[in-house]
Amino acid sequence: MNCQQFQEVLPYIIEHGGNEEEEGHLRTCPACAELVRDLKYIADQAKLMLPMYDPNPRVWSGIEHALHREGLIQEGRTSRQGHITTFATQARSWTPLGWGMALASLVVFTVVLINYRPQLPKTELAAQNSTATANQLNSEDQRLISQVAQQSPEAQPAYEAGLREANAYIEDAQQAVTRDPDDEQAHEQLLQAYQQKETLYQMAAVRSLP
Amino acid sequence: MRISQTRLRAVVLGVSATLGVCQAFAGETHKESRMEIAPGGTLTVTTGGGSVNLKQGAVGAAVVAYTTHSDKVEVDRTSTADHRRIEIRTHVLTEQKPAADESKVDYEISIPPGVSVTVSTVSAPITADGVSGEMNLSSESGQVTVRNANRSHVIMQGVAAPVSLTNLSAARIDIMANSGAVQLTNVWGPKIHVATSSGNISYQGDCSGVGSYWFSTHSGNIDLALPETASVDLAARTYNGTLENDFPLQKKSHTSSSPPKQGSSFAGTSHSGASAVELQSINGKIRVKKQQ
């Protein structure tokens, strides 16, 4: 088994452990072993983050509003936190999009973690190229930007700049982790970088709610 | 009865001016209401543009005053039966998106002690003056200002929103600002944590309160100005940026960790080193200086 074949089944290995052949490759390949170690660390830290960074209350209140509008919760019925007295009606419903965005913000962060690939040490030139790559927006980012632009074009530049900056942050922190895997502050910076990106997704998800 | 021409002109002018003013305020509506809220309850405000001003109010009820600037938006106010949750939301009435000025709502809200507040805005600035307790604030681009409070707990998220915190004692601060600059002046407490991607962070104060002060950024600059009396155990590190220090620090006699393999750093204590101060950047400049 080579590194490419190993990395193709990496998400499965992280979740369920590998078979004998995969475990054998892991024992003999320091690069893949380091990759798995980093991914497990990040996944563990991400689990710890979950209770600390609950979705913004706007997400819950937005969902509740949407449910009322759709008639899924009757006006005057006791809600999750009590009785809602009045609600205005709104002709246009964004419920499917609202649900989709709220869930997407949670899913996207998980996907980003699963697809995380630390870089092997690079030359200066390669590092510059990778920073240029980091400034590119992936398809998820571009989808987010176009959703924000549809709602309010004036907000698009801030989100686009924020995502580019967050990607560059992730890339730089990743390089620091790769250079010295024992550097706790580098790991901390990598988590911070992901949290910055998560914040952008979360705020974009909230603004899409009615 | 004859009216002189001069007086007639004055009357016509006066009537015209009055009509003009009336027209200007035709779409403006001001409302105020008192909403009962239980101790430990939460008050949530969600709006786009305009402004949100919070101040400390009396026990038992929040006073919510707001001004709308057109008939294309309205304000929904809801409350749970047990009075533990109030929600206030700006709501667009028309299918067609109103202009920025038309969708603005200006809020003035008095918060009873012991009630936690959540405010989310798009471009509206948020100002909390003298408000204690928990505040969960988020804004895409509106200036966030919190000042003159004791024992406040501020959790803030922003995209490009500048943040200014002034005169906060025994505070707990947790800020995640993306590109917005964060300025803290005379802010101290057990936990002061600020993280940005590209926003600058500046702190002016004495880092007192035996607290944990943690400032982190990717490409923003960190400026820390401390009085000579500050009692801190300070560590600063950057990976690719630069470091400047003109604050007198004593090197630690022994340290448990070896110097980092990458980037540059400095560390030391002042007086008894009561508060832990940690400054981190990837590319940004870190400057620590003595307050004049």
Write a structural description.
- The complex is a heterodimer of chains A (210) and B (292).
- Helices cover 72% and strands 2% of the residues of chain A.
- Chain A is built from 10 helices and 2 strands, in the order H-H-H-H-H-E-E-H-H-H-H-H.
- Chain A has a two-stranded antiparallel sheet with strand order 1-2.
- The longest helix of chain A is centred in the last third of the chain and has 24 residues, at 156-179.
- Chain A starts with a helix and ends with a helix.
- A 12-stranded mixed beta sheet of chain B has the order 1-4-7-3-9-11-13-15-17-19-24-21, with no helix packed on it. A 12-stranded mixed beta sheet of chain B has the order 5-6-2-8-10-12-14-16-18-23-20-22, with no helix packed on it.
- Helices cover 7% and strands 51% of the residues of chain B.
- The model of chain B is unreliable at 19-25 (pLDDT under 50).
- The radius of gyration of chain B is 25 Å and the shape is elongated.
- Chain B is mainly beta and 292 residues long.
- At the A-B interface, helix 5, strand 1, strand 2, helix 9 and helix 10 of A face strand 2, strand 5 and strand 6 of B.
Write the SSE topology.
The complex is a heterodimer of chains A (210) and B (292).
Chain A: H1 3-8, H2 10-16, H3 20-28, H4 30-52, H5 57-70, E1 78-79, E2 82-83, H6 95-114, H7 124-134, H8 139-151, H9 156-179, H10 184-207
Antiparallel strand pairs in A: 1-2
Helix pairs in contact in A: 5-6, 6-10, 7-9, 8-9, 9-10
Chain B: H1 5-24, E1 29-36, E2 42-46, E3 50-56, E4 61-68, E5 73-79, E6 85-92, E7 105-111, E8 116-121, E9 126-129, E10 133-139, E11 144-150, E12 152-158, E13 163-169, E14 172-177, E15 182-187, E16 191-196, E17 201-204, E18 212-217, E19 222-226, E20 232-238, E21 243-245, E22 264-270, E23 275-281, E24 286-290
Parallel strand pairs in B: 2-6, 2-8, 3-7, 3-9, 8-10, 9-11, 10-12, 11-13, 12-14, 13-15, 14-16, 15-17, 16-18, 17-19, 18-23, 19-24, 20-23, 21-24
Antiparallel strand pairs in B: 1-4, 4-7, 5-6, 20-22
